[in-house]
Design brief:
Elements lengths: L2 H11 L4 E5 L2 E4 H17 L7 E5 L4 H12 L3 E4 L6 H11 L1 E7 L3 H7 L8 E5 L8 E2 H6 L15 E6 L9 E5 H14 L7 E4 L6 H12 L3 E4 L5 H11 L3 E4 L1 H7 L15 E5 L5 H4 L2 H4 L4 E6 L9 E3 L13 E2 L4 E5 L11 E7 L6 E2 L3 H7 E2 L2 E10 L5 E6 L4 E3 L2 E3 L1 H9 L4 E11 L3 E10 L7 H11 L8 E4 L13 H8 L6
Parallel strand pairs: 1-11, 3-4, 3-5, 5-6, 6-7, 10-11, 10-12, 12-13, 13-14, 26-27
Antiparallel strand pairs: 1-2, 8-9, 9-19, 14-15, 15-16, 17-18, 18-21, 20-21, 21-22, 23-24, 25-26
Helix pairs in contact: 1-2, 1-3, 1-8, 2-3, 4-5, 7-8
Amino acid sequence: MNIGYFLTKSARKYPQKIALVFGEMRESYEEFNSRSNRLAHGLMSLGLKKGEKVATLFFNCPAMVESYFGIIKAGGVLVPLNARLSWKELATLVEHSDARFLIFDEDFKETISLLRPQVSKVEKYIMVGQDISGGILSYERLLEGSAAEEPKVEVDENDELMIVYTAGTTGKPKGVLVTHRNYIWASINGATDMSFVHDDVNLVVFPVFHTGGLASFFMRVMMGKTLVLLKKVDLQEILRIIERERITSTAMVPTILTSFLQLPDLKSYDTSSVKTYTSAAAIFPVKVKNRFHEVFPNAQLFEVYGLSEACGVDTVLLPQDAFRKIACVGKAFSHHEVVVADESGKGVAPGEVGEILIRGPVVMKGYYKDPQATAEVIRDGWLHTGDMARVDEEGYIYIADRKKDIIVSGGVNIYPREIEEVLHGHPRIAEAAVIGVVDEKWGETIKALVVPKEGQSLSEEEVIAFCRENLSSYKKPTSVEILKALPKNAAGKVLKTQLREKYGRLVRY
């Protein structure tokens, strides 16, 4: 069993079923599989050998996922690059990955022209598009000259599948090396626990170069679903697609739902077809969650917690608990273990804070070319996530914060997540993040960074006063910055590293 077989199997079972939708384009499973096979043969004709790395640079589109399966079926190791990074950041990752090939969309032609002189290991560049020059190969010509039959490459479930570079929210990105087995079990987890059906029409909003998008995509191909690809987040376009394509399932970050609720014409769109909505990459603000059915009146809500080092699907809060358990990420998926433990590795008592540890077939092989960092996070078979959490009497998990995000003020641990939840309850705040800033007396104090809702104004004094009314005194911010937007990664997660770099050294009294 390997991930490439997911597509092979679905193409055999449902050859004429629409696999991919992109604008007006429709591609059947038979076509999707054939084009992926052609790419696999094309890459092998160029000299790709099993275990060698191939990087890709795309926004969501059919060629992106064809490339993924083509690389995988050829026995290559996929390196999906974050399309929102600068060319300098991309060059660093490409060089670190040891990629021999780089497949990219013409949207990134300028980026690649800047990157190429800085990269020494890539031997072949393959572009999807028309205006091809400068020694770059044509994606379509490579497919046209190659066979559509299944490649005869033996790929085992323990073979390396991908290097996924972490988003870098807490520091320099690392290359998470995962196997076919890891994502096979991640896919089985999703299919087992999330009530999906073969006839789903899924809107793919998450970028498929991101862990959350990858796990979701592979699982849906395994089940033979129809996938509608969204290139970039556009609120009106999302609503139009849901209405036009009769979307039945989708996954998004909570900030998108927050933005939907601010649209004056939201009720003019028909979103009644959506039966399953998955929220991931951030905790749902309570005030927004309580208005969920204003956007998707017929949808069941799943909330998923995960990280790249464990394939992005690690705990799930099921629909029956969605409004019973607030600010909760549920329990472990069926086929691995999750515990919340103290420093000695012992499970914490209800209400106490500990670190989330994960063990099982979804845990990565390790960080690529970084055995020291691997040994630091995988100890005695358990992945130490760095995420702090509590459990309740029923064993449900509640994220407190990342270890590196905890603010220590006067020797007391303060969890930014708790303060952010309060800030999201302010009627004029659209988004909020909380960080620690240097303080000579207390070591650190609390700084809030908030984005007002469109057309609204806020002052530092009223934000602090609001927190004073809703939090213990020692948890209220001592300073507030009013921003137009918070920096985010491709999955919509706030980049606190950037916020700390810009504001965290500030001393204010």
